[in-house]
Amino acid sequence: MSQPWIGAQQGAKAGSERKRDSETRSGLTEPPRTNMCKGLAALPQSCLERAKEIKSKLGVLLQKPENAIDLIIPYPEKTEKKPEKQQKPTPEEAAQWRESLDRVLNNSYGLNAFRSFLQSEFSDENVEFWMSCEDFKKTKDPVKMAAKAKKIYEDFIQAEGPREVNIDHFTKDMTLRNLVKLSPTTFDLAQKRIYALMEKDSFGRFLRSELYQDLLVN
Question: Where is the region Disordered (predicted)?
Answer without folding.
Answer: 1-37, 75-96
